[in-house]
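Project outcomes to date are best conveyed with an example. Our students and postdoctoral researchers have been running inverse folding experiments weekly, and each run begins with a structure described purely in tokens. The record below, which covers 327 residues, was selected by the lab manager from last quarter's runs and is presented without edits.
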């Protein structure tokens, strides 16, 4: 089969289209004939060898997929050959998903409803599962809450805006000015530029005190989040970026307000993973959630797909098609 691998760590130029043997599903695994995958920031971090330990080389890129189950290994009873599935968050030393096939843990997969095409499933898997788990499961978001979603034009952020709006929350998203209209179309009631001088004040001016924050750039924003959060508020951190420092006055205010700081990783979520994907899948099927696909590339152009996704101002997700047909 064809797969995009890297044999050394580095920038996008290390990605190579290789011919490799078809994987064989082990215990608890399903062999998936992959139709589409998508670009996620973790792809670049793995490709650059940043996690400790880094993936072993050569490594097949990619952490999410949509496709059809070809066969299953021992001890898999949830899925059958022929099932349409999507999934994400396979261990980062597992073979990746920029490939025509992958043998992946079956408990990281959910059935993809017939109404949802493979590119949509691949675009949604990591971004929407992450946003759902951060806001609903870790953030306890509920109807009537006010929710701040950072990076609201990006993959996870645009998913978070849609999920929060669907939940019945008032939503403020952060994005550069040129992406503000797109973020409003995703369902935000207000948009604040994340480069503003006083983020906490700008958010409070726009929507008042916030109940839940989806934080993807904590190093830049956490001070502002704590200032924006009201009594009993929750900030859920999914990404840090630069070094994290907190103003003592802001953190004292957060202590007085009983603010709760939580962290989460989709790569590490276990028991409830398939449930989250199943819930997202049904909302994709009835049109209440819909990933924005900024561009689609063929497998052979995966390096170009990663280069494009890393640019500023890309709205939504970049998809990599691993098969020629769409669904
Ligand atoms: N913990 C987890 O399970 C998990 C899962 C998925 C992703 N993540 C992490 O979450 C982050 C976002 O992922 P993604 O897939 O949404 O990436 P993405 O598609 O690249 O989107 C990132 C968005 O954040 C915006 N942004 C840049 N700097 C910002 C800042 N200081 N404050 C607010 N927004 C800012 C970008 O805007 P511009 O276009 O203007 O630059 C872009 O719209 C990444 O760090 C990723 O590794 C974590």
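After processing, the design step wrote out the following sequence:
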């Amino acid at each position: 089969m064809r797969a995009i691998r890297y044999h050394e760590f580095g920038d996008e130029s290390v990605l190579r289209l290789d011919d490799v043997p078809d994987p064989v599903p082990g215990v608890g695994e399903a062999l998936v004939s992959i139709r589409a995958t998508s670009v996620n920031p973790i792809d670049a971090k793995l490709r650059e060898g940043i996690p400790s330990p880094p993936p072993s080389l050569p490594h097949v890129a990619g952490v999410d997929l949509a496709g059809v189950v070809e066969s299953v290994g021992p001890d898999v009873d949830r899925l059958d050959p022929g099932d349409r599935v999507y999934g994400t968050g396979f261990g980062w030393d597992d073979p990746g998903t920029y490939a025509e096939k992958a043998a992946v843990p079956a408990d990281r997969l959910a059935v993809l409803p017939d109404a949802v095409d493979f590119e949509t499933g691949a675009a949604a898997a990591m971004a929407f599962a992450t946003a759902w788990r951060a806001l609903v499961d870790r953030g306890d978001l509920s109807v009537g809450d006010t929710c701040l979603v950072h990076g609201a034009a990006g993959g996870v952020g645009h998913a978070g805006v849609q999920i929060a709006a669907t939940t019945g929350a008032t939503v403020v998203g952060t994005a550069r000015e040129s992406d503000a209209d797109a973020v409003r179309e995703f369902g935000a009631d207000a948009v604040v530029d994340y480069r503003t001088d006083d983020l906490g004040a700008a958010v409070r001016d726009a929507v008042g005190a916030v109940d839940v924050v989806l934080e993807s750039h904590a190093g830049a924003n956490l001070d502002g989040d704590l200032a924006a959060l009201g009594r009993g508020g929750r900030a859920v951190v999914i990404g840090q970026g630069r070094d994290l420092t907190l103003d003592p006055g802001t953190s004292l205010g957060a202590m007085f307000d009983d603010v709760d700081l939580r962290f989460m990783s989709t790569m590490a979520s276990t028991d409830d993973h398939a449930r989250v994907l199943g819930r997202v899948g049904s909302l994709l099927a009835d049109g209440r959630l819909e990933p924005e696909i900024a561009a689609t590339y063929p497998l052979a152009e995966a390096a170009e797909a990663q280069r494009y996704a890393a640019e500023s101002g890309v709205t939504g997700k970049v998809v990599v098609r691993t098969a020629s047909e769409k669904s």
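The chain has a mean pLDDT of 95. DSSP finds nine helices and 16 strands in the chain. The training component of this project remains on track.
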